[in-house]
Write a structure and sequence with these properties.
The chain has twelve helices and 16 strands. By secondary structure, it is an alpha+beta fold. The strands form three sheets. A six-stranded mixed sheet has the order 4-3-2-1-5-6, with helices on both faces. Strands 7, 8, 9, 10 and 16 form a five-stranded mixed sheet that branches.
Length: 395
């Protein structure tokens, strides 16, 4: 290789390095600007790890390859600011030298203490000329930060920015959908591995170990939730050694985290004979879920859909109370309930929202039985992201 050619290769490599840049995962300046305009916010400050990650790509989540920014958050808080025009600024730990490998934000300010974070935060607000404008921040912002802002900028108007951040996150990019779909695939593999291993006498601890091992072996960073109920045991608190026996309806409800994004899939399995009446209840919950799927489209009102789904359930049976829930899913398993017995949003579904639709009903001494799957809203309806058979699995 001659010297001239070697220099050419070196120059090409240098150009390639400079051309490389991090692209936003779900955040867009356009939607941020539109959202802040709708909420009449001049600058929005994200302080929780999940929203800092969304706005900047900085690996602040607890499942990062090295979750050091999450672990040391109390000492070196990371803060993200987004202006009404969509421009961003990032404040983070000075020692973390790899910001440019993860974040697309160019305006980065390093700090070595909480006091330094507050100083950088107020300096940026003043630099942008927003000290007497409308400042939005999260309700979960640490009190020392929010109190500092209120004392420092007494002429500013302070606004709860939670809904603005949720509104940005509700519409998913193609990359976000890809990550949720991959997460869903891994959750389903974990469920299948658990089902394959089930036998009379297997314990919840053994099933949890199988789920964890499968999730990690399949390349996920970790799990969001491992909900597991055997018979009448509490599915929210497994791991106490409960043994599975014939006739127990066992609920396997798994949420995997893949590149920061979560899934939520639930299936039920029985050893031997399915308890009498359980199949009818399962068929009922599947029909209600599929009613929701068939009727959710862009423009359909969430509250009205929920009311119609309950009417549909009542048209099928006069017995039992059905619990119908649709929650947005993405960086968190339940970003917000779009419709449920606890909350019903009076707004329309939009294209590229991703939601988990779950339907449950109490059954004798077995607790809740039912179904849940992830869906993406398309121009014409719902695309199912999960693929497992919806009926009981029998061993």
């Amino acid at each position: 290789m001659n010297e001239e050619y070697s220099n050419y290769i070196i120059i090409k490599i240098i150009i390639k390095i400079f051309e490389m840049k991090m692209e936003p995962i779900g955040f867009t300046k356009e939607r941020a600007s539109e959202t802040l305009e709708n909420h009449d916010i001049d600058v929005l400050i994200a302080s929780t790890p999940v929203n800092v990650f969304y706005l900047t790509g900085l690996p602040t989540l607890h499942v990062a390859p090295n979750p050091i920014l999450y672990v040391l958050y109390n000492q070196y808080p990371s803060l993200a600011l987004v202006r009404r025009d969509g421009e961003e600024s990032l404040i983070t730990w000075m020692v973390y030298q790899s910001v440019d490998k993860f974040s697309w934000v160019k305006d980065v300010n390093g700090i070595i203490s909480p006091k330094g974070a507050l100083s950088e935060l107020s300096d940026k607000i003043e630099e942008w000329g927003l000290s007497e404008k409308k400042i939005g921040y999260e309700s979960l912002m640490p009190s020392y930060q929010s109190e500092y802002l209120r004392k420092k900028f007494r002429k500013a108007t302070f606004i709860n920015g939670d809904q603005a951040l949720l509104d940005m996150r509700l519409i998913k990019s193609e990359e976000e959908v890809k990550r949720i779909k991959k997460s869903t695939e891994i959750s389903e593999k974990a469920i299948e591995a658990m089902i394959d291993a089930i036998h009379d006498g297997i314990t919840d601890n053994e099933l949890l170990r199988i789920a964890r091992r499968t999730i990690i072996d399949e390349g996920a960073e970790g799990w969001d939730h491992l909900t597991l109920g055997i018979g009448s045991s509490d599915p929210e608190a497994p791991g106490i050694g409960t043994q599975m026996k014939p006739g127990d309806i066992t609920r396997l409800d798994i949420g995997t985290i893949w590149r920061g994004y979560v899934s939520d899939v639930s299936r039920e399995v029985v050893i031997g004979k399915i308890p009498e009446g359980a199949e009818e209840v399962m068929e009922l919950t599947i029909k209600v879920q599929e009613y929701c799927v068939d009727n959710i489209k862009p423009g359909v009102n969430m509250k009205e859909l929920f009311n119609d789904a309950n009417k549909f359930h009542k048209s099928l049976t006069k017995r039992g109370r059905c619990i119908i829930t649709g929650h947005s899913i993405g960086l968190e398993c339940e970003e917000i309930h779009l419709f449920s017995p606890m909350k019903k949003l009076d707004r329309a579904f939009e294209e590229n929202m991703v939601l988990d639709i779950e339907v449950w009903q109490y059954f004798k001494d077995q607790g809740l039985i039912g179904i849940e799957d992830c869906y993406r809203i398309t121009k014409s309806g719902c695309e199912r992201l999960s693929s497992l058979d919806k009926n009981f699995y029998v061993k």
